[in-house]
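Priority: low. Protein: MFS transporter. Input follows.
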Amino acid sequence: MSRTEPGAAGPVTAPPRPHPRPVAASEAVSEAEARRTRRAQNRIVVCAGGGEVCDGWVLGVVGAAMPLARTDLSLGTLSAGLIGAASLIGIFLGGLCFGPLADRIGRRRMYLVDLGIFLVGSLLQLVVDSGAELFAVRLLMGIAVGADYAIAGALVAEFAPTHRRGRLLASLIAYWYAGYVLATVLGAALTAWSDDPGLWRWILASSALPSLAVLIARTGTPESPRWLAGRGRRAEADAVCRRWLGTRLDDLDETMGAPAGGARTGFATLFSPAYRRRTLFTSVFWLCQVTPFFAISTFAPQVFASLGAADDGVGETALNCFLLVGCLCGTYLMDRTGRRPLLIVPFLVTALALLVLGLWPHGPQWMVVGCFALFGLFHAGSSTLQAVYPSEVFPTAVRATGIGLAAATSRIGAAAGTFLVPMGLQAWGAGAVMLCGAALSLAGAAVSAAWAPETSGLELAAASTPDEGRAHAAM
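Result:
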């Protein structure tokens, strides 16, 4: 077979060149592009997870700082309970206000503002002089935490590929537990190292360190291409897709129109017939998970002492370690077991553990430790779904609003539990408190069995399509 070589005088005969070389080169380019895209997605997740570290930190330091602050500021039981619940109340307000705002003005801008608020609030704790001032600052920080819950989950979901979305979203909760455990360990170490009455200020203000690092790291984070396209800014969205996702906007799996159910954004859409059940499900299951957790963990020394366990910090540290291990297990199992089993089964196991503690509150120490270990492992494993389900089941136009509402609703129970536990332990004892936690876990299992959709393996557009829409499309 003859052909003309470039620059040759006439036809020459040459053997056909083997095809593998250009294929290998093409594959090398493709693999390099895939690695670049993966690194970009990982950066989005790490920056979002850094905010979760800060969120866990601000809640984790309370247990060590509050006994010292209570003495230094002469706080009563009511004041201590309010300050302990202040961040949770703030999360309620932040989720309700900043979730809709992130859907209106974008993820990126609010993504930086909330960390700035968090940093300022952390430093203000060094100069407060009264319980009222401390409550106000902790409330402000909680508002920033609530905003970050809504924004971070939405941003990760909108950048993550289908096959990694579950694990990447679940890892946000792992980051949260890492921050929570680091804060509790740091607080315990500082209180053991010094008896300075003002040490609680530095324990609380320590959250300024991770918040500053994360604020710097988040600089340069792009806007969500799905949000941009939904706002008609398709050229910008396409540029973000090409740079950060290695694809074109037209290749995304989601149609950027208004969601089913009416309004383009807002709470009216969440409570429309198309999304009402999903709104109730995400709010209720999250509430049933966090209420017993915060009630127990915030006042862990008192709870362990009431149950007859040694009050030397070992039990609390062990519980936190089980929580972190359980969260890592939940992240690993996320795309292997499916969402529904990972939610329903742990609810039943945690209900059993709390039921045993409630019926036998002064049992042997091995039983108390064993039940808390079981509670910690299974609670943390299923809590990874707090970042997954709300981020998956709502469309782009109301995703941050839906996440914010679910986070806000969950904190009603968490704040109430945190506020009531000291009084409940004093009035009724640990057994009654554990039984209340068991009842909430059973309620969560029932709601999840009835309403939890299975979104594993679905494209984000399909996962956020309401059940009525799926049935109609199938016909």
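Residues 295 and 421 are 6 Å apart (CA to CA). The radius of gyration is 25 Å.
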